[in-house]
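Can anyone check this?
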Amino acid sequence: MGKTYDAVVIGGGHNGLTCAAYLARAGRSVLVLERREVVGGAAVTEEVYPGFKFSVCSYVVSLLRPQVIEELELPRHGLEILPLDGTLTPLPDGDYLMRWHDGEETYRELARHSAADAEAYSRFGELMYFLCRAVRPTLDQPPPDPFSLRPSQLRRLLALGRSFARSRDHLYDLARLMTASAADLVEGWFETEALRATLSASGIIGTFLGPRSPTSAYVMLHHYMGELDGVFRAWGLPKGGMSGVSDALLGAARAHGAEVRTGAGVASIRVVDGRATGVVLEDGEEISARVVASGLDPKRTFEQLVEPQHLPPELRRQVARFRIRGSSGKVNLALDALPRFTCLERPRAWTEQPPEAYLRGAISISPSIDYLEEAYDDAKYGSFSRRPYMDIVIPTLADPTMAPPGKHVMSIFVQYAPYELAAGRSWPQEREAFGDAVVKTLAEYAPGLEELILHRQVLTPWDLEQTFGLTQGNIFHGELTLEQLFFLRPAAGWAEYAAPVAGLYLCASATHPGGGVMAGPGRLAAQRILRDWGDGG
């Protein structure tokens, strides 16, 4: 009989590592099991082409919970975040829109397009700040169930009500935002089409919604809630790529005594007399544990790892209905030189910034809301977008260690790429055509891009599923729509990290507070496990 662990964590993604680190920090024996040979899940850096390091899937950080950084001492374990400075939106007519992190520079740039928008932009930022302030406390606590009469739930609801009361002047705005489309929200504030489109694009990232789809405004708010070093709406790049986050979490977990095994895929969760007692690996090895925490999405956990007779029929029905449609892809490029964007080539009398400064932040291919909606139309009918929305960063401008001297890496997030294609087409057949559409569209703004490409990595939703275990390639482990948030995530009645099987817990992005490199689900799941053990969380 082998060792019995206090906890076995399935999956070495960032949430699994977070959960393991907190449990080990509390003095518990913990084993993390990762199917791949590297940990990090979708937050991983790999040298796909000699000398070039790609943040293969996720590529920026902002939502990572400050409590996790502080409590696990992630900077001591190597985490360093390099800030991104603003967002460039190239326009088809050769002009551009630039939003810097510096408020005065952004004001001058917006005024060049619209004096009214320049004045409205700061007011819009204030509104979003207050809405985020109202919602942000919910990210760091379990979601209260408004239909439960348990004292613990009532106390949480009361605390949440007090939090909302501090932002009561904006509660009507929050109620509208939870059901509105991103396009409706921004069109009520601004007249510059590129500004409307770039802002509303935050509402479609990773979700099978268009900018005019109801509830996309909440997805937009979800992305607004990030911060770096206390700076609201700031985004950054981990030094060394996204493995900088995962390696720091791994270091924290190991520093507290957690064990991590790679190349250890889990075939099933062992359940005896209604209790999870361990796992069975794909090679037949059995590992015993007091509790099992799954960092996999609910479909993989409940439909593949747990025998159906151990689960309530209602949970099985809800999991079957849980929407987890993949809608995005990723293209990573190794470049021989920095691309030249047409919009930055001609002299600009209104700025003293060199062209390279505009590329140090994000680059958003989102010239208009109609452009985004047409990209969505392709996906609705089972095709990847021929002219997609793209969110792009060139991490080598902030971190030259990602490529050889003078060379660059370009990371391109692409929307839309539906997991299910029409007319019998398959992603292995369509992968290169998808990559071609991305490069061709981007080359309209950066002519000559094709000649700079030394290597191209194309990841479709099918690739994200096959390689990284993301069901249907959904980057959030389930869509961030209103019916799949808070006490409904992943299922009504089972949103507090504990499964109906005793000793089985979920610590994945499919639980509250949701997707993105947040580490919030891992932290909250660990707290729940410790409370159930009587450790107080």
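Reply from J.R.: I decoded it. Residues 115-135 form the longest helix (21 residues).
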